[in-house]
Design goal:
- Chain A: GO terms for molecular function: ATP binding; ATP hydrolysis activity; phosphate transmembrane transporter activity.
- Chain A: This is Phosphate transport system ATP-binding protein.
- Chain A: InterPro entries: AAA+_ATPase, ABC_transporter-like_ATP-bd, ABC_transporter-like_CS, P-loop_NTPase, PstB-like.
- Chain A: Keywords: ATP-binding, Nucleotide-binding, Phosphate transport, Transport.
- The complex is a heterodimer of chains A (260) and B (228).
- Chain A is α/β, with parallel strands linked by helices and 260 residues long.
- Chain A has a single domain, classed as P-loop containing nucleotide triphosphate hydrolases (Rossmann fold), CATH 3.40.50.300.
- In chain A, 35% of the residues lie in helices and 25% in strands.
- Chain A is built from 10 helices and 10 strands.
- In chain A, 47% of the residues are buried.
- Chain B is mainly alpha-helical.
- Chain B has one domain: Up-down Bundle (Methane Monooxygenase Hydroxylase, Chain G, domain 1), CATH 1.20.58.220.
- Chain B starts with 6 loop residues before the first helix and ends in a 15-residue tail after the last helix.
- The chains are: A alpha/beta (260), B mainly alpha (228).
Chain lengths: 260, 228
Amino acid sequence: MTEQTTPSAPPKMAARHVNVFYGDKQAIRDVSIEIDNDHVIAFIGPSGCGKSTFLRTLNRMNDTVAGARVEGDITLDGENIYDPSMDVVQLRARVGMVFQKPNPFPKSIYDNIAYGPRIHGLANSKADLDVIVESALRRAGLWDEVKDRLKDSGTALSGGQQQRLCIGRAIAVEPEVILMDEPCSALDPIATAKIEELIHELRGRYAIAIVTHNMQQAARVSQRTAFFHLGTLVEYGVTSEIFTNPREDRTKDYITGRYG
Amino acid sequence: MPEHTIKAFDEEINRLRGLVAEMGGRVETALEDAMAALVEHDNDKARRVVSEDRKIDLLEAEVEKLVVQIIALRAPMANDLRDVIAALKIVGVVERIGDYAKNIAKRVPQLGAHPTIEPLSLLPAMAQVAGEMVGDALNAFAARDAALAEAVVARDHVVDSFYNGIFRALLTYMVENPKTISECAHLLFIAKNIERIGDHATNMAEMVYYAATGDYLPERGRDTGIES
């Protein structure tokens, strides 16, 4: 690992010496990293390197995987998210997630967004909820395209619109961190560009971490890049540096297409 | 360095490096021939240097095209990106060096026989050093040799001192032999051309160092101590 920036304020999320096991198999080895509002962080690396596993430990998605075990500290605003007192449902509202394949609920566009705020009790009235839905859809860059058909099914939208709907759904519960696991891999270039533009606009308001296999995408959307290989964090640094002058040979071989 | 998973990418990079090497070789020859033509009063050789320059220009255009193609189609990263950018910048510089050699060659027929002008004897030695710097900078690019690139940069002052010495000698000579002023003016321009070749070799070496290491050489003083 090379450059580690040290922000003056405590980081939004911090992982310290994290190990993750699936049964006997260790998937993550001693990873320490910080995620903050002022930069989008991209996790890159070959398949099986642990980048998605690591992303999922950040909102305890691995809890549901039998035999998965996490060691080390992961904190959100200084609070250990694996502490027994942590409410996992609450945690996942604060640390939202967007998946590879758009997965809207088989409900209306409106209800897709309204679902989270309803169960988290964020709206006191229908009018409140309308405001939340509009605001989330606007921030997801989808409002103008769907405002006249909020009652239509979310699944009737195009793939790119569905993915923005899912981002809107994550935003609606006012998260602090948004995790994205290859959010564009099922989208065409135009839909991808819209998501990337959206990521750019959401930066600063939320701490964003994105897993991507597309190196150009990592270069385009992130300000920090972390390269994982065989479960270890090989190199972490400023994106423009990682892509022009990586310090580690393994990083260089991977991003220049010489890996394996 | 390990090969790219995509073999065609390696082939393109190798072709690019080959073109840069070929262009560099032609420019080294142009400088040597221009100086030989000057010393031997060989007008035919001088004309050949001038006409051969066109091939150097064509090679530059070919490299530019290939670089644009590689950037567009391969999206090179890290050391590949630095290599490709360095190649693009280097051929621009090499083309300039070719022009200086051509300019020297063009003056040969205008000089006539001039065995009496004593400062002329310093020019071949000066050109020798500048030519070696060009050759070493090109070799450093070919071998990705940062140490060799650094050594080129460190030698620039030798060419500068040559220039300052020749400048003073020619001024003195012109004062004492006003009939030779026109020839001496040509020689002064030739000396200046060689001095610029040294500067360009230095620039090239700085690019090679960056391509090889990803770091910039510490900034040198921009005041190079050139008298004119």
